[in-house]
Design brief:
The complex is a heterodimer of chains A (about 1100) and B (about 130). By secondary structure, chain A is of the alpha+beta class. Chain A contains 23 helices and 47 strands. The chains are: A alpha+beta (about 1100), B alpha+beta (about 130). Chain A: This is Trafficking protein particle complex subunit 11.
Chain lengths: ~1100, ~130
């Protein structure tokens, strides 16, 4: 028996299809026959009828049919199902034999051919003696047949042939060998299929008919056999519903059989077969729940049917196979479109199969561990005359035996021994691993990462048992980190122990050390190997792990000594962030920043969690700037001493549970000012450089795979910290500071600014910077940078200028920031600066004083660069506002001025400065379109304005004629020279330019002005002379009227119309006689220009005085 | 037997103690199903406030039941399949008792959430349940 003895026979697992035999075809030498055969057997897709075809020679011997039993009365069956039965009906006994014969209806030798055909049919019939197999004849014809009924010769000859061959008309077919071969073939095979179905239907009826002869006492086995056969025939008939029904009956019958130790295997085997068929059909009918329910029932029924205790492994092997084949069926159904879920997928069945395989292995280990002397029994009790069993599930040494007790106890013993010996040679691990990996694949598909990990652990353990340590280690290492991150320490411990054994047996020194470190570390529960690491560092072969295979141990030991003798193989660096080692480390800088003139302090805290004290030989910190590494190194000075001897350097020994602190100090380099120093890693060396050593490396100075969670828990904790004795620290309170900044020395100078804010626009604003050193030594190379603080509005940069020279006004060429004004070595003093702010608003000014000074740190002289920044916010305001307006000689506001008519330009200077302003001078610079009437002279020279005081001046101007009657003209500029009146510093004069507004100039056709005394007296004549001047080149008609007034009597023309020649002037004289005293309105003169109706009297009246003061006469 | 929302064990106990490791694996693997259940029907579950997850997955020899509190603390009970005295209702009430007791543990100001549970009261509740069940 092969190891595959538990595999289900292939004829059980395949899909049964009707078997049709084709004879009379010469597929080797006849091309036509070959084409026919190819058409039958190629391209058998699902849409074609399920038939399995076979070409057989015409004289093929079919299996002989045994003579039919007429009575079952004395018949005692020897087993449930014969091993050959399924194969016989699938591949040997056809449902239909088809005879192919080349014969055309009009064949000249018809008679001869007809009888030859009849002979061939007879030969087939003879070899099928006793079977119900049908026979059919296919005539291969060269000609296309006529439609049925038209060819009289054909129908006549057909019936003749049927008669000769003893065939029914339905069994004679014609296959014209023409273009449409495949179409004919499909029609033919459909007809064959019908014949085959009839055959199987008859077979089912035949088997069913046996039932009445059976009795329940002796023929129990036959009940099962017949139901199974009916089920199988139904499947061949493609009647799966009925097949399922028969199989279900068979299944319940098989469990009704009297079970005892001798036939247990047979019952279980058959139950397994039938169960397989049922489950398969259920999946096929898309009722997976039925399949699962059937399988559960099957397992529940069979679980306890162990059979012979000495062959218990057979039961577990069988169980394992049941689960496996169900898993296969399930998986196959999924591939055909069934959807599985997380909690119900083939993985569980594979897993259970693996579980039983493991059980089997264990049982085999117990039952098959014979004395070395016990060999395989001879003669072989498993040998049978035919080389195979007659019935499924029977013992080779007592086939057909159905009674309760074995016929020969000695034979029985030999048989069991033989089976046990065979079992001993089975490679159980391989089977288990294959099943597990099937399950892993399934669970991966159905989102069960933990189940997958668990199975992979099992696989790893199985590889370990199979002594494939490399694969074992690979698998275990793969899943270990999952368990580590999930923090299931109990599980991790068990995995680690196995991994440790593997690495030991392979002589993998580094892995061995890593695993043992983690095993003695915190969280894990192993205590048994306390000094493992210390031993490792002794450069010796470690003690073998317990429970290891002795042969492997021996090999491992030689491996180890080989490894050790190799130089350079004895140093290992372990990155702890992937593990949870037994030493914890935290490194921190004392402060987040250090000044350059003080030493940088670094503390490293180390704690061991292992149960015994541990000594280390080196502790080193590496920093981002490696030059400092040499200062952060702690080494065991006693290099030659034995490590286990108590050393004088007590602090190199870690006591379990106690935190040790190591302090390092170094002076930072001046180049590192402004830079960050980081702890890149902390290394702890266990062992000796002279021998083997392990280097634990904490990247970033702390933390392993478990730290982050522990830190979180510690931070949550409400536990009151118990006060620890001096020099001891609570581990959880140590915080991490893995980087520090080196910052420059604190400057000991003072920078003072003296000034008078706010600044005035355009002013040369003076600020005095006073620097005073408070250093103990000379401050050298003092440099002042002053100006606008960078990073402000870009417009400010353009509108601010800084200079050291206050005597001249800055322009754009001066910078906004004056860098590095060298001041030399410090003589405490002042430095005036001038700032020219063109725009208003606030701006931040920066004064940066840098210098260097020498200092001594830890006995080391360094030159420290110090700097001090002082900023000040400066507000800039407008010093004064200038308002300008044009007024007439009557001080009336003018919107436009008239050509050649004098008017006034008035300036109001309103001081807005909080400080007094002295106006030094003012000047009007007129544009060409304006002329001054008299020499304009500043009227505000030397005036000092206090806050919100106002100074005014005015200039008499007129405009020369303009073209086009009206136009807007520029007036010119107004210059004001001023300075801040300050006692604080000498200020320079600033010249501010104000642009005068534009004004509209207009020609006027008629100019009117009056000549009258400055005042009148009551009842005294007041002569008034009006001049009317024609300013056009045209003769003008003018109408003049004087309106009466209550205050005046008057003489002169009351209403007149006259003409004024171009360029001439008309004079009108009136004598007014005032009647009342005081300011009196003069009688109104109405002038209307008939040629210029748009020039109203109103406009012209503006040139005339409207009132006069009348004095009282006494 | 229960675990935290982080999926590491806070408290785990089995009777009898032999073969404990196997049960640890069983509890651990059952978290796959718990995780899937709470992520899959997250919204619906939150509305219903049904904390009992029922039978998690079938094994040959054991039945694994799950329960998740609102703060995602998971309780898992594994019982022998042959123990037919424990019906769904009994399991449900066991979980409720466990949950109540767990709440008491959490209310203890000296208990640091996330630490393994070391409470006599919780121990005795678990012990009485185990005695009743087996």
């Amino acid at each position: 028996m092969s190891p595959a003895q538990w595999d289900l026979p292939p004829e059980l697992c395949c899909r049964p299809m009707a078997f049709v035999a084709l004879t009379g075809l010469d597929v080797v030498y006849n091309a036509i026959h070959r084409a026919i055969w190819d058409a039958f057997c190629t391209n058998r897709r699902a849409d074609r009828v399920p038939i399995s075809f076979k070409v057989l020679p015409g004289d093929h011997e079919y299996p002989k049919c045994r003579t039919k039993r007429t009575s079952y009365e004395w018949y005692i069956p020897k087993g449930i199902l014969k091993t050959g039965w399924m194969n016989k009906h699938l591949n040997l006994v056809p449902a239909l034999v088809v005879l192919f014969y080349e014969l055309d209806w009009d064949d000249p030798q018809w008679k001869e051919k007809q009888s030859e055909c009849a002979t061939k049919v007879e030969i087939v019939r003879t070899s099928l003696q006793g079977r119900n197999t049908k026979v059919a004849v296919v005539l291969i014809q060269k000609k296309t047949p006529l439609p049925p009924g038209e060819d009289l010769v054909a129908s006549e000859r057909a019936s003749a042939l049927c008669g000769a061959c003893d065939l029914s008309g339905k069994s004679l077919f014609v296959l014209p060998h023409t273009d449409h071969l495949v179409g004919y073939i499909i029609r033919l095979e459909n007809a064959f299929y019908e014949h085959a179905q009839t055959y199987y239907y008859n077979e089912i009826r035949r088997v069913k008919s046996h039932k009445e002869f059976l009795n329940k006492t002796t023929h129990q086995l036959l009940f099962v056999r017949h139901q199974f056969k009916m089920g199988f025939f139904s499947e061949l008939k493609q009647d799966t519903q009925n097949a399922l029904k028969y199989y279900r009956t068979a299944y319940s019958l098989v469990h009704e059989l009297r079970a005892h130790e001798t036939n247990m295997l047979e019952i279980k085997t058959m139950a397994g077969f039938i169960n397989y068929k049922i489950c398969r059909l259920c999946f096929q009918h898309n009722t997976p729940l039925d399949a699962i329910a059937q399988f559960r029932k099957h397992i529940d029924l069979c679980k306890k049917k162990i059979g012979s205790a000495e062959l218990a492994f057979e039961h577990t092997a069988w169980m394992s196979k049941q689960f496996q084949s169900f898993g296969d069926l399930f998986d196959e159904a999924i591939k055909l479109g069934l959807t599985a879920i997380q909690t119900q997928n083939p993985g569980f069945y594979y897993q259970q199969a693996a579980y039983y395989a493991q059980e089997r292995k264990q049982q085999a280990g117990q039952l098959c561990s014979h004395e070395p002397g016990v060999g395989y029994p001879a003669p072989d009790p498993l040998e049978t005359p035919t080389g195979a069993l007659d019935f499924y599930g029977q013992r080779p040494w007592r086939q057909g035996h159905q009674s309760i007790d074995p016929p020969d106890s000695e034979k029985e013993k030999q048989g069991i021994l033989a089976l046990q010996v065979k079992e001993r040679d089975v490679l159980h691990s391989e089977l288990i691993i294959a099943l597990l990996s099937n399950a892993v694949a399934q669970f991966k598909k159905y989102k069960c990462p933990r189940m997958k990990s668990h199975l992979m652990v099992q696989m790893g353990e199985e590889y370990y048992h199979a002594k494939d340590y490399t694969k074992a280690l690979k698998l275990l290492d793969y899943v270990m980190c999952d368990y580590r991150t999930e923090r299931w320490w109990s599980l991790l411990t068990s995995i680690l122990s196995t991994a440790l054994k593997c690495s030991y047996l392979m002589g993998q020194v580094k892995d061995y050390i890593t695993y043992s470190m983690e095993l003695v570390g915190r969280g894990l529960l192993i205590v048994y190997k306390v000094d493992i690491v210390i031993c490792d560092c002794q450069n010796e072969v470690p003690e073998p792990e317990p429970d290891c295979d002795p042969a492997s141990v021996k090999m491992a030991q030689s491996l180890w000594s080989d490894r050790i003798s190799l130089a350079g193989n004895n140093e290992f660096t372990i990155e702890v962030q992937d593990y949870v080692p037994f030493v914890q480390c935290k490194a921190k800088f004392l402060y987040p920043s250090f000044h350059i003139d003080e030493p940088v302090q670094l503390h490293v805290y180390v704690r061991a969690d292992c149960p015994h004290p541990v000594r280390f030989s080196k502790l080193c910190v590496s920093l981002s700037n490696q030059e400092y590494n040499q200062y952060c190194l702690l080494e065991d000075a006693s290099k030659e001493q034995d490590i286990l001897e108590p050393s004088t350097q007590e602090n190199m020994c870690l006591v379990p549970g106690k935190t040790r602190k190591y302090c390092f100090k170094f002076v930072a380099k001046t180049e590192d000012v402004g830079k960050k120093i980081e702890i890149t890693s902390v290394g702890l060396m266990l062992g000796r450089e002279t021998a083997r050593y392990v280097y634990l490396n904490w990247r970033g100075g702390w933390g392993d795979a478990a730290s982050s969670h522990e830190t979180l828990q510690a931070s949550r904790s409400f536990k009151r910290r118990t006060r620890l004795p001096e020099q001891q620290l609570d581990w959880d309170t140590v915080t991490i500071q893995s980087s520090t900044m080196i910052i420059s020395r604190v400057p000991k100078i003072s920078v003072q600014l003296t000034h008078e804010p706010p600044a005035l626009t355009n002013e040369m604003y003076c600020m005095i910077v006073t620097i005073q050193s408070e250093e103990d030594t000379v401050a050298k190379d003092i440099k002042l940078t002053a100006g606008l603080k960078p990073g402000q509005d870009a417009n400010l940069t353009q509108s601010t200028q800084i200079t050291l020279n206050g005597s001249e006004v800055c322009d754009d060429s001066h910078p906004a920031l004056l860098p590095d004004i060298p001041l030399g070595d410090l003589q405490p003093g002042q430095k005036p600066l001038y700032i020219h702010c063109v725009s208003t608003g606030s701006r931040i000014l920066l004064f940066h004083v840098a210098y260097s000074v020498s200092a001594t740190v830890e006995g080391k002289d360094i030159t420290c660069k110090c700097h001090k920044d002082e900023t000040v916010t400066l507000e800039t305001v407008v010093p004064f506002e200038v308002a300008m307006k044009f007024v007439s000689s009557k001080f009336e506001h003018l919107e436009r001025v008239f050509v050649d008519i004098p008017f006034l330009l008035m300036m109001d200077i309103l001081s807005a400065s909080p400080w007094p302003i002295e106006l030094v001078n003012s000047e009007v610079q007129l544009a060409s379109s304006m002329t001054a009437i008299d020499q304009p002279q500043s009227q505000v020279e030397g005036v000092t304005l206090q806050t919100s005081e106002c100074a005014s001046e005015c200039f008499l101007l007129k405009c020369p004629p303009v073209q086009n009657g009206t136009s807007t003209v520029a007036s010119g500029h107004y210059f004001i020279s001023w300075k801040r009146k300050s006692a604080f510093a000498e200020t320079s004069v600033v010249r501010t330019i104000v642009i005068l507004p534009h004004v509209m100039v207009e020609n006027i056709p008629l100019y009117v002005h009056a000549e009258l005394p400055s005042f009148g007296r009551v009842r005294e004549s007041l002569p008034v002379r009006y001049h009317l001047e024609n300013r056009t080149g045209l003769v003008q008609d003018v109408e003049i009227g004087v309106e009466p007034s209550d205050a005046f009597m008057f003489s002169g023309l009351k209403q007149v119309r006259m003409r004024i020649l171009p360029g001439t002037e008309q004079e009108m004289l009136y004598n007014f006689y005032p009647l009342m005293a005081g300011y009196q309105v003069l009688p109104q003169l109405n002038i209307s220009l008939l040629r210029f109706p748009n020039i109203s009297g109103q406009l012209l009246r503006r040139f005339l005085p409207s009132r006069i003061f009348v004095k009282v006469t006494f | 037997m229960n675990c935290d929302s982080m999926n590491y064990p806070l408290y785990i106990r089995s009777v009898p103690t032999q073969g404990e490791l196997k049960f640890h694996y069983t509890v651990h693997t059952s978290l796959d199903v718990v995780e899937e259940k709470i992520s899959g029907v997250g919204k619906a579950l939150a509305d219903q406030r049904e904390l009992y997850l029922g039978l998690l997955y079938p094994t040959e020899d054991y039945k694994v039941y799950g329960y998740v509190t609102n703060s995602k603390v998971k309780f898992v009970i594994v019982v022998d399949s042959s123990n037919t005295s424990l019906r769904d209702n009994e399991i449900r009430s066991m979980f409720r008792k466990l949950h109540n007791s767990f709440t008491d543990v959490m209310c203890n100001p000296f208990y640091n959430p996330g630490d393994p549970i070391q409470s006599k009261a919780f121990d005795s509740i678990v012990s009485t349940m185990m005695v009743q069940a087996f």
